[in-house]
Amino acid sequence: MKKLLFTLILLCPLAVFAQTTKPVRSFFDKKTIGEMRLTLPAKNWNDALDSMRLYGEGMMLGSISIDGMKYDGVGVRFRGNNSYQTGMKRNPFQIKLNYTNKEQNHQGNTSAKLSSALRDPSLVREVLFHEIASKYMPAPQASYTKLYVNDEYVGVFINLESVEGQFLRTHYGSDDRPLFKAGVDYKPEGVPAACKQNIFGSLEYEEDVDCYRQNFEMKSDRGWLDLQGLTRILNREPAKIESVLDVDRTLWMLALNNVMVNLSSYSGARSVNYYLYQDNHGRFQPVHWDLNLSFGSMKNTGKGSDLDLRNLQRLDPLLHADNNLKPLIKQLLSDPLYRKIYLSHVRQINDDYFANGEYEKRARDLQGIIVVPYTDDKNKQYSKEDFENSLKATTGNKSKIPGIAELMGKRANFLQKHPELTALPSAVSDITVQGRGKYENQRVNTFRIQVKADRFPKRLFIYYRFADDQLYKSMVMSEEPSSGLKPGSKMFSASIDAADENAVLDYYILAENAGTVSFTPRAYMNSPYKVKLSDLNK
After folding, report:
1. Domain spans in the chain, listed from the N-terminal domain onward
2. Residue spans of beta strands (DSSP E) within 407-515
3. Which CATH class is domain 428-536?
4. Residue range 261-304, pLDDT digits in tens
5. Measuring CA to CA, how many Å separate 289 from each of 81, 133, 160, 294, 408?
6. pTM of the predicted model, to two decimals?
7. What are the pLDDT digits (tens) for 132-141?
8. CA separation (Å) from 415 to 315, 325, 349, 356, 432?
């Protein structure tokens, strides 16, 4: 009895602890709203942050509590370019958690970047865009948080994952290589007079490497010559572009911008709001940024005046394809295969999220999460009525911000019927990987893959690798005898030698016909086919 009583006494504190301890909230959880509480030394903190934003690059020292976790010695400043407004408390924030303590982080994140969602009465543009983009290429995470400064509720903000450290390591395996952000907050001094003016992050080539400093912010400790090398090859030797740029992810970036009418980007009047990171293979990787003006909130393409709603709905999927001032678009889309791949990406994004109305359901779900803290926000720029109507109707008499569904409903229909997007792709089927026969003693040491494709395939490419950190290699598949198949169908095969008996092959297939291309599997970017050599020898 005494032994039992002693055991119960020991277990009681553990039971109480288990009942009272709350689970740690994930920093970018989208199902709940986070809470950040900043403590700053200045009573008129927004005036002080305005001064720092306008006249320098310093940060105000303070402390922060993130979902109940306290951090001292953090740096705080207003950030943003078009999204920053003098005299406003509800501005975008940059909070550097490791400002004084280099080891300090929250769940691996050394900084927090908060978006005020300027010119987005729906408050969902950035979160929705990032969610959709992440299905096709690396994209920062985005969620919601309530922000308090010196115990004053400032409003509900969008919490964005920074394009640095943890993000770079997760997606590219390193964080110590050249990193650039297109667009600068401050014009640097000493830029040579001969530099091209007002080209922003268009990636035009400049003879003087110092010219790039007025159009890009270098976020690493080196890389200007690498960036210049990218622009030289893009503009002068485009046939070599795959050696310095991840072309497929760049085509995804451009397709996402176009479908979701994101003109505060490379695709708009100013080629800004994207990052370039040079991966371990020497190729630059594009990353979207500052998406509060997507879905038609920014309306200028750089040609003529702002577009009205009808022209935003009917934005040309081949916008800038012949524009010498947009070499990233013109040079890539001048290649017939890249052009087909880009248009295939446009069609897939539209089919996956817009033609079926999935985007609107998700937008309403996101608004449902934040409706209460938005209502309580005394610094909000739009009324609750504007917030509620912002998916279906245009907001504002001057800025005329389109309702997201008002824009994308007709845009989805326009894209489905666009003559550049109506060609039927070849469908790949009957994929087989040859294994060892039942009574064969000879082990298989080659991956032999055979497929069928319909609708008059012109070429089939297989892309393959043996490890996640390797680049995909490509091979044109061989056409096989196709007797007995339906007209327009063909058989193709490829043989890939295995490096060793434990080889695991990742692969996907691109089928090209006269009009377009298709990828198999459809989600090849994140989920390629995978086959083990050991399984083929069972």
Report:
1. 34-165, 173-354, 428-536
2. 428-433, 446-453, 459-465, 473-476, 478-480, 490-497, 504-512
3. mainly beta
4. 999 999 999 999 999 999 999 999 999 999 999 999 999 999 99
5. 12, 11, 9, 10, 21
6. 0.94
7. 999 999 999 9
8. 9, 25, 10, 13, 34
